[in-house]
Specification:
Blueprint lengths: L1 E6 L4 E7 L7 H7 L5 H16 L3 E6 L2 E6 L8 E7 L2 E9 L6 H31 L10 H18 L3 E9 L1 H8 L1 H17 L6 E6 L2 E7 L3 H17 L1 H5 L3 E9 L5 H17 L5 E3 L13
Parallel strand pairs: 2-5, 10-11
Antiparallel strand pairs: 1-2, 3-4, 3-6, 5-6, 7-9, 7-10, 8-9
Helix pairs in contact: 1-3, 2-3, 5-6
Length: 302
Amino acid sequence: MVIVEQQSDQNGVQVLASTQVFRQQGQLSERLQTTLDIEQLLTMYGQETRAQLGVDSLSFAADELIFAVFGHIEQKPQHNAALYADGEYLGQLVYSKHAGFSAADLKQLRFYHQQLVFPLRNAMQFARVRRQAMHDHLTGVGNRLLMDEMIQRAIITQQRNNLHYMLLLLDLDGFKKVNDSAGHHMGDRILKRFATVVKAQLRGYDSVFRYGGDEFVLLLQDADNNSAKLVFERIQQGLRSDPLLAEYSIGCSAGGVAITQSSDELSLMAQADTALYEAKQTGRGRLCFAPASIPLDAVSSL
C-alpha cells in the first residue's frame, strides 16, 4: 500500500492511496476492519482522533452523504483531507481544533489516514450495493426490504423516545385503466412519475416505499392525523398539477395508521389496508384512518 499526502492548499491535503495488498497497520486499523457500517467506522475513527489529538469537530462529506462524526459541522475548518483509493475519490474529512494543528498533529493524522482509507472504501462499496438491493429498480424509492427495516426502526424509536410516526398506504386511482388502454410501458412511466411527485411533497426525514404493484407506503416522522392530511392534500395537488398524471386522470386513495408503543409491522399494514379499503369504497381520492389513529395534540403540524 502506498499513501501519499499532497498539500492542496494552506489547510488541506489530498490523500492518494493505491494498493495491491492491503496490510493491517496497528490496533486502529484492526478495529476499523471489523465493520462495514460507514457511521460506525467513522465513529471509531473519530473517537481515536478526539482522544489522541483533541480534535473539536470532525465531519465526512461524500457525494451521497454528509456525516457529522462529532462536534458542530458549521465550526470553522482548519484542516481537510480529500481521500482517494486507487484513483477513486471517496470523500473529504474536515477537522477543526480550537488550538490549531501542530506539525506533530498533522504527522499523526497522516498515520491515521493510512489506516482509514481502505476500510472506508470497503464500507462505501458495501453501502452502495446494499442501497441498490433495498430500492425499487423501476421507481427508485425504497422497496419492501427497506420498508420493513424502517418500520422496525420507527417502532423502536416510538417505544424509546415517544417520537410519533404515521404510516400511510397509498393506492393509485385509475391505474388499471391506463395499463388496459395504454399498455404496461405507459403504466411504468406513470408509476415512476407518481413516485417522483410523492417524494417532492415529503420532508427530508420522511420516507416512501413501493409496497407492490401500484401501492406505496409513506412513513411520516413526528406526525399525527392532521399533519398526515396535509401531506395527503399536497400529494393530491401534485398529482393534479403534473401534466402526465393529469392527462391520464391518475389520483390516489390512502389508509393511515399511527405507530404506537404496542405496534407491530403486520398489524400496522393490516390496519392501513382496512382504512385504504374504506377510502376506496367511499369515493376514492380520500384518506381514511384506522380507528386507533387518534390525533396527537403534542405533535406539530408539517
